[in-house]
Write a structure and sequence with these properties.
Rossmann fold; binds shikimate-3-phosphate; alpha/beta
Length: 167
């Protein structure tokens, strides 16, 4: 059966690492939306936020996601805010199997504290800021078909859990 696997969750939830490993195990293509936007715009996500603002980035993000939403045999990894849009949610839920890679603010903080490329966290980087963003997004993330707690798992273990759900 042809499948579109969609990974959603906060920055640091492991979408890219897990997505890439999962695609190899399944023999599927792997697409990371942030990556696709950077290739198209020839700019980093951070530079796009800086020069054109968040709204502009969200438009590009939606366009790219909708473009890939009807592909099959693909693992699609969204940016942390990529599942906020209602049209995107509906289409991905209709065409794909959506997995929410869940993690606590503390666990996300530990994972991303050394990365400086995340524009939303550059100004006020703390567990509280992550908790604030997560609280706003949780209801949308929880629309996923499957929710996987990632804090106590390695990327490989998350990958195996997804594979078990897919059987
Ligand atoms: C964002 C998450 C980032 C990237 C952008 C905005 C967000 O992706 O899309 O910086 O709004 O949470 P990752 O979740 O892959 O870090």
């Amino acid at each position: 059966m042809k499948k579109l696997i969609v990974l959603i969750g906060m920055m640091g939830s492991g979408k890219t690492t897990v997505g890439s490993a999962l695609s190899k195990k399944l023999g599927f293509d792997f697409v990371d939306i942030d990556n696709e936007i950077e290739k198209q715009e020839k700019m980093t996500v951070s530079a796009i936020f800086n020069e054109f603002g968040e709204q502009y980035f969200r438009r590009l993000e939606k366009e790219k996601t909708l473009f890939f939403a009807n592909k099959t045999n693909m693992v699609l990894s969204l940016g942390g805010g990529g599942f906020e849009d209602e049209e995107t949610q509906k289409l991905l839920k209709k065409n794909g199997i959506v997995f929410y890679l869940k993690a606590t603010p503390q666990c996300l903080f530990e994972r991303i504290k050394t990365s400086i490329h995340r524009p939303l966290l550059r100004k006020n980087f703390s567990v509280d800021t992550i908790a604030f963003i997560l609280k706003k997004r949780s209801a949308n993330y929880e629309k996923a078909k499957f929710i996987i707690d990632t804090c106590d798992k390695t990327p490989d273990e998350v990958c195996d859990k997804i594979l078990r759900y897919l059987k």
